[in-house]
Amino acid sequence: MFLGLAVWAFFYAVTAITTDLEIKHLWLKLENLGIASVPVFWFFFVARYTKQDRWLSRPVTILFWIVPLVTWICLFSESWFHLYYTSTTPFDGVYGPFVITRGPWYMFQLVQTYGLLASATIMLVWRLIQYRNIYRRQMVTILVALAIPWLINALYQAGPDWLPPIDLTPISFTLSALLISVSVFGMELFDLVPIARHLVMEQIPELVLVVDANDRVLDANPTTATWLQKSENEIIGNNIFDVLSQWPQLADRYKHVNELRDEIQITGEAPRTLEVTISPLYSPFNLLEGRVFMAHDVTEHRNMEDKLKQANRSLQEQLTQIELLQEKLREQAIRDSLTGVFNRRYLAETLDQEVARAQRKGYPISIIAMDIDHFKQFNDTYGHKCGDLVLQSLGKLLAERCRQSDIVCRYGGEEFIVLMPDIDFDVALSRAENLRSAFESSVLDYENEKLQATFSAGVASYPLHGPNGDITLQAADRALYQSKADGRNRVTAYKGE
To answer: Smallest Cα–Cα separation from 44: which of 30, 34, 58, 32?
Structure first.
């Protein structure tokens, strides 16, 4: 950067004192070698100084030189010179610097120049906020060193009437160079390095080894000696494979990689789990100069993690069992234990929901209410066990012959309800008759006797026979009692009051 400033200042000076216009133009062109390069070098300097240059790979840095390169091509080309300077006139006849008229590409160069300066300023301010007070004096000094020449250059570019058209920017950089030198060499920058090394290397609780390109250990912290149970003399200057001989798992991983972040199991009397990081150290020419080997003992953490995983698996198993039990209890709560069909409680919970859904979607719901004929005679004649078998037989028939969307419930005693969404009244009557006929035809084997049973049924539909589910259910129940009054073993359609 300072070399670019020297080129800028030198050729600006000789341009001012030269009287030969042809030579004067040559110095002007050479002056711009410095003008176009200084902002780029300044940006690189600030990025390096603030440790924000990781993204500045070689291909990326080349991109920064595209605009300066085009600038120099325009300047040294007779055909394109006007794109950068539309006109160049000596300040006083043939004496003094040129008074220039800016061309279109000059503005491109100016935009890049001030863009790089703004970016460098932002990086410095950002680090100024982040760094401790001991570093802030350096940052402020460098910011002042940046501000002085570019404020002067901004005035030159603006060209106020009260200011002669002389560029004092390269001269002002002399003060900037002085301030930068003070910030780097006069503010205890190098005095802080040993303290930082002591804090990091001597007190860090992890194993740290610094190894050169020939696998010799250059530095190690006290934790390394404690872990490996070796003295400093047995570690520093020795081959890393000899140093790690008691932990061959680490030495083997180091042998095959330049960069690593992984967990490694150390076997032996006291097994360990180490989180290992190997970071390469490269020279400015991208040559491998060495590696930093770090290991963090995470044995206790992993043991706790394994215990937590085991506890979590056990808890998941218990939760699964609880969910199965809850599902089983829910089924028991809504199912009739004898017949396996839904119970009266479930019908009460779902009837209003089904009616609301039917109302939204615009379809009817039909209800069949049925009651086993002369059920008491089965209990009195053959016993309650036989009565239970009759109830189970009807429950099984209804479950097999009704749709999956139908809701079959044991309403109480020997009475059953079938709720049929999206079935109109006439179809429901036909289905009820089919169910009645099928149950009448079925034969129940009980203690070497062939028994048959029948049921009476009543059918009603929503919204034909009631504005809601309860009234429609009552209508089906009235039709059921009409079937009983008419002689049983029949299906009766509800016809209104």
So the answer is: 58
Q: Are the CB atoms for 250 and 242 separated by under 8 Å?
A: no
Structure tokens at 129: 């906020």
Q: Where in the chain is the domain with CATH 3.30.450.20?
A: 198-297
Per-residue pLDDT of 72-83, as tens digits, reads 999 999 889 999
176-226 pLDDT per residue, tens: 777 777 766 665 544 444 344 555 667 788 889 888 888 898 888 888 888
Residue ranges of the chain assigned to CATH 3.30.70.270:
342-493
Pull the structure tokens for residue 286.
């991208």
Tell me how many degrees the CA angle 316-321-327 measures, rounded to the nearest 5.
125
3-state DSSP: the chain helix, strand, coil percent, rounded to 5?
55, 20, 25
Residue that is written with structure tokens 């859904």 in the block:
357
pLDDT in tens, 348-381: 889 999 999 999 999 999 999 999 999 998 888 8
The H-or-E segment that residue 333 falls in is helix 299-334
Phi, psi of 33 (to 5 degrees): -60, -40
Q: What is the pTM of this model?
A: 0.42
Give the integer Cα–Cα distance in Å for 272 and 276: 12
Q: List the structure tokens of 373.
A: 């004929």
- In the CATH scheme, what architecture does the domain 342-493 have? 2-Layer Sandwich (3.30)
In the beta sheet, which residues pair with residue 444?
Answer: 451
Question: Which amino acid type is present at position 61?
Answer: T
Give residue 228's pLDDT: 87
The CA distances from residue 181 to 40, 173, 204, in Å, are: 19, 12, 33
CA distance 457 to 492: 6
Among candidates 42, 51, 12, 29, which has minimal Cα distance to 113? 42
451: β partners: 444
Query: By the 8 A CB rule, do 276 and 263 touch?
Result: yes
Please report how many Cα atoms fall inside a 13 Å half-sphere around the Cα of residue 440, on the Cβ side: 15
Q: Positive or negative CA dihedral for 256, 259, 265, 270? A: positive
Q: Which residues contact 446 (CB under 8 A, 6 or more apart)?
A: 382, 386, 389
DSSP state of 284: T
**Minimum mean pLDDT range among 176-190, 221-235, 319-333, 461-475:** 176-190
CATH topology of domain 198-297: Beta-Lactamase (3.30.450)
Task: Retrieve residue 157's tokens.
Answer: 């570019």
Place of tokens 């350096």: 138
| Six-digit token string for 193 | 């390095």
Cβ–Cβ under 8 Å, residues 139 and 128: yes
